[in-house]
C-alpha cells in the first residue's frame, strides 16, 4: 500500500534536533513526567498491573474524556495511541477503494495521502488566505457534485489555525446530510478558544478525534481517542483487535490523572498561546514584510513573508545559521510561508522572530 | 477496508473478565508497575519529558533489543506499540492487492485476514497435528507454485507452540530465495527455549517482530519492535509518520529498564512455563480423553479432547459453571481443541485442568 513521505513529519525528524529556537512546534511546551505524577493525588499509579487492561479503555478515563463534550456516553468513545492513529482507525474502518473524500489544503498531509493509499478519490478544497484561511463556499459546494463518503476537517487547522464556526459547520452538515456523508473532525488543537464546536456533538455522522498531545502538553503518553456514534465505535473496536488491542493501563491511568486536572492544563496552554500571540501581533506591526492571519484557535498559524527566497531555503538558512527552526510552507505545498507555533517560551519566541526578520532582510 | 471480527480477541474481550481460572492467557503472569520500577536502579524515569521523544525509538532501548539477536545494528530496528502493530506495519508497508501470501493454520487470525483486507491472495498451509503441528513439506512446497510475496510464520506458534527449527527454517529460506520472498516471523513467544532462531539473523529478507507483552510479562507497556534489513526499516519509519509518530519516551524508558533486567524476567517466564508443563504432562498421563503435542517453546499449546461437545459449548460451560476460561478451538477453525496457556499460577492451573476433565466426563 503505497504512501508518500510525510513531508512535515520528515522535516521535523530530520531537523528538529538542531533547533535552538523551536518556532514551529504544535505542542504546548511539554510537561515532565514528574509534573504529571505530582497531579496524582489519589496515588492511582501504585497498584497498576501491566496487563492489557480494559481493552477499549479505562472507564474512568473515558468518563473524563466525555466531559470535554456536550453529548454522548462512554459507549461513544474508544481510545487510540494518539490522534493520528485515531484518524487512521476511522479512515481504515470507513473508507474503501473509489470512495470520494473531501480534504482541505494547506492541511495535514494524512488527510490527503492516507485516503489515497486506500484508493479513495480525494478532492482537495483550498483554504483561502484572503478569506481568513476558510474555503470559498462555492468551491466547497462544487466538491459535493457526486456523493461524498467523508469530509475531513481539522478544527482548528494545522497549519492555518482557522476553523469552521458553528454556523459554517451547520452549513457543511446540511451538505453532508443528503448522503449521510461522514465528517471526520480532527479536534486535537481545540481547547484554546471557547466557541469551538465538536462535530460529534451536533451530527449523527460526525466523528471527533483528539489526544493529549497538543493543548494538554502530553505527547509522550501517545494517547488519543475517537468520539462517534456507537455503531462506528463498535466497528473500530473490532478492528483495533488487529492493530493495538488496547492502549494499556499505564497510559490510561496517566491520561485519567491528566484530565482530572484538565482545567489547570488548559489554563496553562491558553496563557502560553495568548502571550505568544501578543508578541506576534507586535512583531507584525513592526515588520510589514511579514503578515499572518491571526488564528482564532489552536496552537499554530501560517506566517507569510515577502521575498524571493524559497520557504525551504529560508528555513534551512535560519536553522543552520541561527538555530531558528520552522517547517517551511513547501511541506504544505504553499510557498512564502512558515509554520509558526505559539507554543513555547515567550522570550525565545520573540528573539526567534527578530532573527527571522533579520535573515529575510539580509537575503533580499 | 473490510476485516472480519478477530475471533480469539473478541472471545477474550467478551469473556475474560468472568474467568476465575485463566487457563488460556498467552502472557506470562503480568508484572505490576511497582515491580518494574523497582528494577530502575539508575532512576531513569526521573527526568523524562513527555514530548514525542526520539521518533524511531530511544537508542539505548534499541541497543538492548539488539542484544536479543545475533546480527545487525540499531539501524535494523524500529519500534511499534506491540507486536501486533509491528506485524501490521510490516504488512501494510510491503503488501499490495493481488500479492500471494502464505500463512499457516491453525494460527493467529491477523496473518490470514489482515493480508486479505489489503487484497492479497492468502494460501493457508495446514499445521499437521500428527506431525507435531508442523506443515507437511510437500504441501508447503506446493504453495510456492507461483511467486510468493511473503510467508508469515509465528515462531513459536499461537496456539500450537510449534516452530520451525533451524534446519526447517533453512529449507523454507531456500524456497524463498528464488523470488526474494519476505519471511515475516512473529517471534513474540520466543525466549523460553534455547534453540530458537530469529529469521532476521539468517536471511536478508527475514523480518523478526516481537514485544514485551508475552515472555517479558509487560503487555501493559504496549511496546514491540521490528528487526529487518535497513531498507525495510526506513520504509516502515516513513510510514509510521502516518500512524504513530513515536512510541514515546515513557514507554521507551520503561522498555529499557525491562530489557536491562531481561535475564531475570526470562528466568521467571521459563520457570512458570516449566512448572505448568510438568503439571500438564502429569494430567495427560492420568486422563487419556485428553492429548496434547507438548510445545517445544512459547507459552501456549493446543489441548485436544475426545467427545461430542463442541469446543465453544465446552468452553462456555466451563466458564459459566466453574469460571474456568479457555479460548475454544472454534476461534481457530479447529474443533475438539482448547487453547491452553502455560502462563499462570500453578495451583490454579492444576485445579482448572481437573475441573476441565470433570466437566468433559459429565458431558459425555
Short description:
Two copies of one chain form a homodimer. By secondary structure, chain A is of the alpha/beta class.
Oligomer: homodimer
Distance between the termini of chain A: 44 Å
Order of helices and strands of chain A: HEHHEHEHEEHEHEHEEHHHEEHEEEH
Residue stretches of chain A low in confidence (pLDDT < 50, at least 5 long) are none
Shape category of chain A: globular
Given helix and strand content, the structural type of chain A is alpha/beta
Count of alpha/pi helices of chain A: 13
Largest sheet of chain A: 8 strands, mixed
Computed CA radius of gyration of chain A, to the nearest angstrom: 20 Å
How much of the sequence lies in strands of chain A comes to: 15-25%
Average pLDDT score of chain A: 96
If strands are numbered along the chain, what order do they take across the biggest sheet of chain A?
Answer: 2-9-8-7-6-3-4-5
Helix content of chain A: 25-40%
Query: Main interface pair?
Result: A-B, 61 and 61 residues
Number of strands of chain A: 14
What does this 3D model show about the protein?
2 copies of one chain form a homodimer. Chain A has 364 residues and is α/β, with parallel strands linked by helices. The first copy, chain A, is built from 13 helices and 14 strands. In chain A, strands 2-9-8-7-6-3-4-5 form an 8-stranded mixed beta sheet, with helices on both faces. In chain A, helix 11 runs parallel beside helix 13. Chain A is globular, with a radius of gyration of 20 Å.
Amino acid at each position: 500500500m503505497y504512501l508518500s513521505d510525510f513531508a512535515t513529519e520528515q522535516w521535523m525528524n530530520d531537523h528538529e534536533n538542531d533547533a535552538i529556537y523551536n518556532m514551529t512546534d504544535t505542542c504546548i511546551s511539554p510537561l515532565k513526567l514528574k509534573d504529571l505524577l505530582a497531579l496524582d493525588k489519589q496515588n492511582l499509579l501504585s497498584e497498576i498491573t501491566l496487563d492489557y487492561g480494559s481493552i477499549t479503555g479505562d472507564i474512568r478515563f473515558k468518563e473524563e474524556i466525555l466531559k470535554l463534550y456536550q453529548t454522548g456516553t462512554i459507549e461513544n468513545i474508544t481510545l487510540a495511541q494518539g490522534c493520528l492513529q485515531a484518524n487512521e482507525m476511522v479512515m481504515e474502518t470507513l473508507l474503501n477503494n473509489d470512495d470520494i473524500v473531501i480534504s482541505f489544503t494547506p492541511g495535514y498531509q494524512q488527510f490527503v495521502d492516507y485516503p489515497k493509499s486506500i484508493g479513495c478519490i480525494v478532492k482537495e478544497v483550498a483554504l483561502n488566505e484572503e478569506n481568513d484561511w476558510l474555503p470559498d463556499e462555492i468551491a466547497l459546494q462544487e466538491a459535493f457534485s457526486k456523493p461524498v463518503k467523508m469530509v475531513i476537517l481539522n478544527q482548528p487547522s494545522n497549519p492555518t489555525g482557522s476553523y469552521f464556526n458553528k454556523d459554517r459547520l451547520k452549513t457543511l452538515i446540511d451538505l453532508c446530510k443528503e448522503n449521510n456523508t461522514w465528517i471526520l473532525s480532527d479536534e486535537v488543537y481545540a481547547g484554546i478558544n471557547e466557541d469551538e464546536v465538536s462535530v460529534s456533538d451536533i451530527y449523527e455522522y460526525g466523528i471527533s478525534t483528539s489526544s493529549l498531545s497538543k493543548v494538554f502538553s502530553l505527547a509522550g503518553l501517545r494517547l488519543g481517542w475517537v468520539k462517534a456514534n456507537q455503531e462506528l465505535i463498535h466497528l473500530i473496536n473490532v478492528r483495533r483487535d488487529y492493530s493495538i488491542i488496547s492502549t494499556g493501563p499505564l497510559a490510561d491511568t496517566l491520561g485519567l490523572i491528566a484530565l482530572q486536572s484538565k482545567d489547570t492544563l488548559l489554563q496553562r496552554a491558553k496563557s502560553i498561546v495568548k502571550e505568544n500571540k501578543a508578541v506576534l501581533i507586535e512583531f507584525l506591526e513592526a515588520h510589514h514584510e511579514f503578515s499572518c492571519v491571526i488564528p482564532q484557535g489552536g496552537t499554530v498559524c501560517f506566517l507569510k513573508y515577502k521575498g524571493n527566497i524559497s520557504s525551504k531555503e529560508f528555513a534551512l538558512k535560519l536553522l543552520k545559521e541561527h538555530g531558528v527552526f520552522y517547517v517551511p510552507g513547501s511541506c504544505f505545498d504553499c510557498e512564502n510561508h512558515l509554520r509558526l507555533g505559539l507554543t513555547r517560551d515567550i522570550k525565545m519566541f520573540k528573539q526567534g522572530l527578530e532573527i527571522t526578520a533579520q535573515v529575510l532582510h539580509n537575503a533580499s
